[in-house]
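Hi C.,

You asked whether I'd gotten around to modeling the 320-residue construct. I have! Everything is below, sequence then structure, no commentary in between.
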Amino acid sequence: MGVSPILAGGQVVLICDQQHDSFAAAFSQADGKQVWKTPRPEAVSGHSTPIVYRPQGAGVQGAGIQIIAPGSFRLDAYDLASGKSVWWVNGLAPEMKSVPVLDGDTIYINGYNSSFNDPGRHVEIPSFADGRAKYDINHDGALQQSELPEGPMRLFFPFEDTDHDGKLDEAEWKTFQAVMAAENGLLALRAGGGGDMTPTALRWKYQSKVPQLPSALLYRGVIYMINDGGILTTIDPANGQPLKQGRLRGAVDKYYASPVAGDGKVFFVGNSGVVTIMKAGPDREILSVGELDDECFATPAIADGRVYIRTRGMLYCFGL
């Protein structure tokens, strides 16, 4: 379970995405009783914590408030009062881990599944009937890992064998096709509407060096996106055009933690505990680089003029 609960309008909302029977649910803050539960049949894996969206006219106590929840292949906006999916957008990566960023009526969300989901790297997966005719050596009507050719079909077999019976049936194969056909990317989506908003919601899409784990950050008119390998891309939120791309000077590392910002500075923490403070803005001026000498995979928290960083063995507090 990689999703944090959120609190909105007196309800605690939790997204539970898993290989089978994924759902969204809300519970009363007062007594813990379930208020609603909505199936998410498209979601087969995911760890994205949702956010709250208040369309124009939404009330403080829940009326009209929506929960923006990214999942496998699509993003849903659930009505907080009823749990109904009010609108949705297709085109997301198969496994979402990042937290959406909301700015006015625009949602920024990044998703990455594998290098085979990058533009120009897609591998065509045949239909189940064609795959069975070509690879089903023992003629049992299913496809086993040893029967498949070297490459993505064999490599990703353990993830697609969701019932763990050692073979892929037609339903599992179709999910695998959808996974391999999806695209990595940072998407800018127009929030709001009703029903399927896929045809009109996309404002732009950026698809180079997209992170799997760290969420994007929007601060003072610049999007900061650092991928797992430590490549930082700064992007113009108006049009999705990159401003600069490259590694953080003096802080070559892997990154799981998302960047955070405050006091005109952007903070990055690498897996080895290297902390980089950058002056906010497109110029990427590095103010300092320090070492905590401990592994860190958690996103820092900023509150009341202080930065809190949790490493494997310690909790640090620094003044801004």
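If it helps when you're writing up: The chain has a mean pLDDT of 95.

Thanks,
B.
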